[in-house]
Amino acid sequence: MKKWLFFLVIVGSLHRGFAQSIPGLTQATPQAQPASVSDPLGRDTPSGTVLGFLQEAQNGNYKVAADYLQMSPARRQSQGAELASQLKVLMDRDFEGSLRRLSTRPEGNLEAGGMPDQQTIGTFSSGEAEVPVVLVRVAQPSAAKIWFFSADTLSKVPDLYDNLQAQRIEKELPRSLVEISFLGLPLWQWLALIAAVPVSAVIGWLVLLLLEIPRSLWLRFRKRPNLHLVRRVSLPLLVFFGAIAHRAIASYLRLPLLPRLYYYRTIGVVILIGFFWFVLRATGLMMQRLRAHAIGAGRIGTGTLMLLGERLLKALVWIVAVLAVLAVIGFNLTTVLAGLGIGGLAIAFAAQKTLENLFGGVSVLGDEVIRVGDFCRFGDKSGTVEDISLRSTRIRTPDRSELSIPNGSLATMNIENFARRDKILFNPTFGVRYETTPDQLRYLLAELRRMLYEHPMIESESARIRLAGFDNNALNLEIFSYILTRDYNEFTAIREDLLLRIMEIVEKAGSGLALPARTVYLNRDADIDAKKASAAEEQVQKWRDEGQLPFPDFAPEDVAAFRGVISYPEKGSAVGGDHR
Predict the structure, then answer these.
(1) How, if at all, do strands 143-149 and 129-140 pair?
(2) Could you give the count of Cα atoms lying within 13 Å of 219 in the half-sphere of its Cβ?
């Protein structure tokens, strides 16, 4: 229900914004005033008067166009059509002003200054003089106040028209090119606009060539390869510069005012398309190079974050491009942005979980806590990271099922990344039988400690083995050491080798691994090898006599000499190689 409510709020806000931004739409559907006082010709606002006059005059309805002029009924009847046609020519050829800035409010533009109920919308240029074009607001008996072209401006129209006619280029052209028109434009201007297209394309290509020459020289001077990346943005730039050149050429054709407005809007949209097309291409190229550089430097998480950033930047460019095109077309973006702001708040409230997952993904990728391919533990679950998307992270568990974790939860979760280990802990605890004598145990500890020092895949600096305690049925020995590998499969092979060597040393000491059971002996157990036990005790006695008893540890020079003595893998193994 909440989602439908938010949707209705957004649609209502956008509808109000677009309705208020289209000139003349609010006039067609009056709200503040009753229908009886609304002017049928749309002269309630300066914009309605000027656009209405131009539209009627362009359609050839000069008698109706005369109703937009401030003059007496008798003069309007006799001279109105002729004066309207002359004013239309002046507006098309000699008017300096912007139709987009005309006020759409009944009271006009109060910020422009001037007298009340009077608005200057532009000027007519006649030689060195400039004649203001003034609208006046006049009260009517049967309606509210409406706007007219002022009588003072109309009094100067005949002289301005005669001066303009003497300078018109149409006098030098065939009459058919001047008299035939389409959509308010004479045929000769249509032909000129079409002929300007290839000329503009050539100008745009020359501009691109001029921009490429300094870049090629710079790359040659720095002795860097030319990757020809400019070719991927050349088409958008050609559209951009070509449209600018076409607009510059069209400014010399003196297009009629209303078609000029439509042309400027159209060519403005083409210029924006070329510009934002270039921005999208340049953004993609820049982010691709940054991503490749990050991945090449080993920052895979940053590379993935670059991909996310590229998508967000492109989405932002699209939004700005749409708003810019709407502004050029003539929409009032103030109300549209207000509607989008309200809609954005509603969307943010409704999609807070989605946004939480989005920012959680950005946090995970930015911190590079995990990467694709890492084996990690997430809470009580573990698995290999297969993909980090905008919403969730997908994990492949050891039983080959797929686990999906929302990024918002992942950002607050304790993660143990096994792929970041530089070495793996080897920490077994095992028990030997209670029948083992103290000297046997000393021999066993010394031999095991020596084995740890000698093994090439054990970190000797931290390796140790100690008598850890007395269990109910065994003497517990604890080994603490690190195996020098990051690969878990290799770790299991080294662990197997170490455990087998431990069994051999226990047997060599004449002892045995304790069984996890309670045994009652009725006579002396003959399982202990008396000969081997005697040899172990003699060796320990020899160490004592020579002052070399390795307790609590071997001498440092002995530890250094032991390093790497054991051959691993041992001789005869199917997997050869020297790990020292």
Answers:
(1) antiparallel
(2) 11
Q: CB–CB of 289/326 below 8 Å?
A: no
CA distance 41 to 53: 9
Task: Supply 473's token pair.
Answer: 């049925």
3-state SS record for 203-222: HHHHHHHHHHHHHHHHHHHH
Task: Name the phi and psi angles at 386, rounded to 5.
Answer: -105, -30
Q: Where are the domains of the chain?
A: 37-167, 185-330, 353-420, 424-562
Residue with tokens 């009725």: 522
Residue whose structure tokens are 């009588």: 151
Nearest to 265 by CA among 99, 122, 61: 99
Q: Whole-angstrom Cα distance, residue 19 to residue 335? A: 9
DSSP string, 454-474: H-TTB-TTT-EEEEEEE-SSS
| Class of the CATH domain delimited by 424-562 | alpha beta
What is the reported pTM? Answer: 0.47
pLDDT along the chain (580 residues), means of 10: 41 44 41 55 86 86 87 85 85 78 80 72 72 84 80 82 61 70 77 87 86 71 60 83 88 76 87 90 82 69 67 84 84 68 62 63 68 84 82 86 83 82 91 90 92 91 91 90 90 92 92 74 63 88 87 85 81 61
Domain at 353-420: CATH code: 2.30.30.60
Instruction: Return the SS3 of 331.
Output: coil
DSSP of 394-445: EEE-TTS-EEEEEHHHHTTS-EEEGGG-SSEEE--EEEE-TT--HHHHHHHH
